[in-house]
Amino acid sequence: MKAYVFPGQGAQFVGMGKDLYDNVPEAKELFEQANNILGFRITGIMFSGTDEELKQTQVTQPAIFLHSVILAKSLGNDFKPEMTAGHSLGEFSALVAAGALSFEDGLILVSKRAQAMQKACEMNPSSMAAIIGLDDKVVEDICNDTNGIVIAANYNCPGQLVISGTNDAVEEACRKATEAGAKRAMKLNVGGAFHSPLMKPARVELEEAINSAPFMEPICPIYQNVDAKPYTDPAKIKENLIAQLTAPVRWTQIVQNMLADGADSFTELGPGSMLTGLIKKVDRKTETESKQSL
Questions:
Q1: Which residue of the set 74, 93, 195, 196 is catalytic?
Q2: 205 with 118: CB under 8 angstroms?
Q3: Active-site residue 195, yes or no?
Q4: Which of 42, 54, 154, 161 has the maximum number of C-beta atoms within 10 A of its C-beta?
């Protein structure tokens, strides 16, 4: 079975999507539609902006969504997913690519999500860090034993877990992880504590927008971040999408479940190739492909 996966924040690079804009008329039309919906020329930042401009959450998230979704749409009849998933923000790309949301509604939700997360980050100075080389249970115990708010936020692959929380708590947990034998415990260059309780204000803000958006049944199951299980019911998809902002991303479990359900090849659509790398760490023998253009 063919699985398509979609990257999240951090995969962006200047120049992303430009070849689609230049060579595929339908893609150019969608990019221009996005400029109108967003009220600014995001294509200018994507194609020729600075790293700093592209790194702002309210730009990064719609940019990655656009690259991923427009690439999927540019594949035309070659895009025939039997299952899909996306990492964090990538879940929105997966939903639109699989027909659960329209392009316009998906982009509006992603933009609102990015702005809400940016605001939540400014309200609570916070951060994330990658812990490499420890079992998940060890990292979870460290988080539980640390003062303040810090949780296991991204289960990326065996031996790689990202923690998220207040600055002091993340630093303390990193120190404890190093003492426990972690190969690395490094702070990530992100705006705040994504997928933690500190995103609650963003979740409240986004809940209304998600509930009022028209969701449809997708063309294939979507494995969602909150519990790594496949869904096609629009009501359940909405519920999981709302919970996603303050819940961990269970990527390791998503890949394991897709493999168990018959996935024999994974294609990553969008900037970077981070997800194909993580999939290989779950199962080295799995066939993977990373596509950034046609």
A1: 195
A2: no
A3: yes
A4: 161
